[in-house]
Amino acid sequence: MSTTERHKESVRIPAKTGHAVKVNKGSLIRVTDLEGQQVVDFVAYDAQNANNRLDPGVTMDVLRSYRIKPGQSVYSNHYQPLLKMVRDTVGVHDFFNSACRPEMYEVLYDKKDHASCYHNLNQALEPFGILPPDQHYPFNLFMKSVVDDLGKIDVVAPDSRAGDYVEMEALTDLVIGLSACPCEESSCNGYHCTAIQLDVEPMAN
Ligand SMILES: [Zn+2]
């Protein structure tokens, strides 16, 4: 279900599905975990140049951290700040993991033709002329990866509870894509996939 008002767009993205929308510079993008412990694979493309896109590796390089705080930005592969983190009620997200895709479910869980963030994002971005990349490397909202001193990475249940959200400001015109991750085989989404909410508020003036 989606409703579009004159100045604000609010979309409830059902469990295991994706959504994309164009947002103008200055817009505030709020992503809410409606029920808690739901990961959102979030990608962003420069609306004028799809080769300039959100890049988790570059973001970690610039921030010198795998955590992002309010006031800091998410960067593109061209080292351009695309989104500024404005508010964050959780503070734990993931830059490490690429989008889940059917092959992942085959390799890790022996399941064929599983719904995936890769497919959700491709489908959502298609109307904006963004061709499927060989893989999506998202900013994984609410996803919790725990790294130990030996380099072991564990994906555990998110810290997010019902109503937790992140709010980011678009620093340029963007096409953003979101996928409510359909993995219920691991603690990634607390073994339970649920809907998410997207609210976009254009810059006031
Ligand atoms: Zn996923």
Automatic annotation (TrEMBL):
Ranges for domain DUF1989: 12-175
The domain of life is Bacteria
InterPro entries found in the cross-reference section: DUF1989
Instruction: Show the Pfam families listed in the entry.
Output: DUF1989
Q: What is this protein called?
A: DUF1989 domain-containing protein
What does the organism's lineage look like at the top?
Answer: Bacteria, Bacillati, Bacillota, Bacilli, Bacillales
